Amino acid sequence: MIWNVLFLAVGFYLLLRAANALVDGSAGGAKLLGIPKIVVGLTLVAFGTSAPEGTVSLVSAIQGNSDVSIGNIVGSNIANIALILGLAALINPLQVTQATVNKGIPLNILATFVLLVLGYDVFFQNQQVAFNRLTLGDGLVFLCFFIVYLYYIHADLKEGKAQEEVISKREIKEAREPWWKLLLMVIIGLVGVIAGGKLVVDNAVIIAANLGVSDAVIALTIIAIGTSLPELATSIVAAYKRENDLAIGNIIGSNVFNVFLVLGLSSTASTINFNTQLVPDMLVMLVVVLLLFLFVYKERVLKKWHGMVLLFSYCAYLFFLVSRELYF
Predict the structure, then answer these.
(1) What DSSP character marks residue 133?
(2) Calpha distance 44→165 (Å, rounded)
(3) Which residue range(s) make up the domain with 62?
(4) 152 burial level (CB within 10 Å; 0-12, 13-18, 19+)
(5) Which of 230, 306, 183, 294 is closest to 50 using CA atoms?
(6) Cβ(60)–Cβ(66) under 8 Å?
(7) Is 178 helix (H, G, I), strand (E, B) or coil?
(8) pTM (2 decimals)?
């Protein structure tokens, strides 16, 4: 187990170093190209940090493990907002762009409703249906919504409305690093956060098992948070460096990617059975997104006390998970 502890420490170190490279490379590239950082966070960074969730859900769907395929996405989205943005806001208050308030967060809310309506067939369909499934048709609907999301991002980029302030010529000149070096930093950062996250999850599971922790507790804590480690590392480092657009955009974009792209691809690859026991978890996902929207709607700032409320919400959710597993 000593080796596992060592690999765990290496994984955390790799996560932090890679996240640092990813944030610096993304921010520098945004300045060099004159692209709003929020757009980079909502697309490139979000796609990269969603890779663990995407891999787990797609493989699980193909192997017929539907609960893992959907539960991984729902649990990750809850952790992204309640845990990660909660911690990021405690480090530094996060300024939120108007585009995130008007489009990004509402798309997160829409994603929850779409998942519920498409998956919970018995409840939402009038005719007698004896099953709840995400099929090929549902997957294509998810992917259509993802295309709409990309359209909004493209419109924001084209019209320059993704952030209030226009990137000035002075900022572009400040990006002194050559483009190839910034691109290399982004690639190394993306690979590093995924590899570091895998090292942490794999070895933490082994250590927990050796200590006698039950499989249920391991799944509800380590594995659930594990696939969100790239988002966690990236957003925490971005918040520390006051790169608010990357910290927020990474989370909002990742959640949209998780539902519309990951579940879209997963359900087109193989039919996914929808377990109605996950409905309360989806309602929790909806509640934390609504909380985020209420916090930032007027002042467009995620304050430290907002972060504390989000973290408390996540702790309450974990307590609910453990209680459900033990007593129901």
Answers:
(1) E
(2) 21
(3) 2-327
(4) middle
(5) 230
(6) yes
(7) coil
(8) 0.77
pLDDT in tens, the chain (328 residues): 788 778 777 776 776 677 667 666 666 666 666 666 556 656 666 666 666 666 666 766 776 777 777 887 888 899 999 999 999 999 989 888 887 888 889 999 999 999 999 988 888 776 666 678 899 999 999 999 988 888 877 666 655 544 444 444 444 444 466 767 777 877 887 777 677 766 766 776 676 677 765 544 554 566 667 767 777 777 887 888 887 777 787 788 889 888 998 899 889 988 888 888 888 888 999 999 999 999 999 888 999 999 999 999 999 998 888 787 677 6
- C-alpha neighbours within 13 Å on the C-beta side of residue 214: 6
| Cα-Cα-Cα-Cα dihedral sign, residues 277, 215, 322, 91 | negative
Tally of domains in the chain: 1
Of residues 42, 54, 43, 51, the one with CA closest to residue 18: 51
Q: How far apart are CA 193 and CA 181, in angstroms?
A: 18
Contacts of 155 (CB under 8 A, 6+ apart): 161
- Indicate the burial class of 139 (C-beta count within 10 angstroms; 0-12, 13-18, 19 or more): buried
3-state secondary structure 50-114: CHHHHHHHHHHHHCCCHHHHHHHHHHHHHHHHHHHHHHHHHHCCEECCHHHHHHHHHHHHHHHHH
CATH of the domain at 169: 1.20.1420.30
Which amino acid appears at position 249 of this protein? G
What is the amino acid identity at position 30?
Answer: A
Dihedral of alpha carbons 173, 176, 182, 185, sign: negative
From the CB of residue 188, how many other CB atoms can be counted at a distance below 10 Å? 15
Distances (CA, A) of 293 to 81, 90, 91, 109, 243: 11, 17, 20, 9, 20
φ/ψ of 130, rounded to 5, equals -100, 10
